[in-house]
Amino acid sequence: MLITEIKHNTNTYYVNTHEGVDLSIRNDFLGSGPIFYGAEKPQVNALRSGDFIGDIKKGGSCNVPIVTLDVHCTGTHTESIAHVIDSEVKISDVCPKGMIPAWLTSVELQEANKTNESYHYDMKNELVITKDELQKNTLEPNNALIIRTLPNNVSKKKRDYNVEPAPFFTNDAIDHINALGVQHLLVDIPSIDKANDGGQLENHKRFFKQGKTISELLFIPDDVIDGFGFLQIQIPNWGLDAAPSRPIFYSTA
Predict the structure, then answer these.
(1) Using CA atoms in the order 135, 140, 141, 144, what is the torsion angle rounded to 10 degrees?
(2) Beta strands at 168-169 and 52-53: parallel, antiparallel or unpaired
(3) Whose CA is closest to 187, among 248, 114, 132, 105?
(4) pTM for this entry
(5) What pLDDT shows up at residue 28?
């Protein structure tokens, strides 16, 4: 057991690093994970080079898998501003490397035609996350905000969002999150924007500034209590706009 002492503002917290909760969806490459925006499911093929095959089950001396996946549309990932603008920013440059203060909150989805909040594209007959719903919860300004949508069905781990359209945020909700000073936004939906918003991605552009990140397609177990904690976002050192990620949450609630 390893206990880490963290001083935040005027408080001291003691975190057991073995008790973090994994908020990512495991990619087992068996075709059972979530997919979005018409993406193909992740695939694994064995390396072939001359007489060598990188698959022990097929007689190879070792396993050498070649992975093909859509980072943004087939699993938990973290993205930078370079996702929506022409930028040299790499996700490994802006993703926080240590533990950061975070707030977890659960929100009910609202029918778009029952809210007065705005979106930059048609949102009739859609389910949305609203500023009004966020304001019902006590959200303390923190470096990171983790949002769990309700109902929190385990089907999120394998949902085909091409068949079952994903909810998204109103513009007002994103403006509210910005006003809280959030630098790292984590959500259990595939995008903070509507899948088809005419290519505008306005919510992404509203939120993103240099150094900010968005993590999407998480799954947050029901037994993780809303409230304050510390967050670590684990990613590979990829020189891209985004990378697969594994957010680990250490609740202090």
Answers:
(1) -90
(2) unpaired
(3) 105
(4) 0.96
(5) 86
**pLDDT tens digits for range 56-86:** 999 999 999 999 999 999 999 999 999 999 9
Q: What is the DSSP string of 56-117?
A: GGGT-SS--EEEE--TTTSS-EEE-GGGTS-----HHHHS-SS-EEEEEEEEE-EEGGG---
Q: Is residue 48 a part of any domain in this protein?
A: no
Tokens of 39: 């993406």
User: For residue 231, is it within any domain?
Assistant: yes
Comparing CA positions, the residue from 170, 162, 147, 165 lying closest to residue 218 is 147
Can you read off the two tokens belonging to residue 107? 């929100």
Task: Print the domain residue range for 93.
Answer: 17-25+75-251
3-state helix, strand, coil split of the chain in percent (to 5) is 15, 30, 55
Evaluate whether 130 touches 110 at the Cβ level (below 8 Å). yes
CATH number, domain containing residue 191: 3.50.30.50
Q: Are 53 and 88 contacting, i.e. CB atoms less than 8 angstroms apart?
A: no
pLDDT tens-place string over residues 130-182: 999 999 987 777 899 999 999 999 999 999 999 999 999 999 999 999 999 99
Average pLDDT (81-102) is 96
Q: Which of 109, 129, 28 is nearest to 74 (CA)?
A: 28
CA-based end-to-end distance of the chain: 20
Q: Within a domain: residue 2?
A: no
> How many domains in the chain?
1
User: What is the H or E stretch that residue 179 is in?
Assistant: helix 171-179
Is the pLDDT score of 1 beyond 90? no
Distances (CA, A) of 104 to 186, 194, 253: 9, 23, 10
Would 172 be classed as within a structural domain?
Answer: yes
* CA dist., res. 143 & res. 181, Å (int): 7
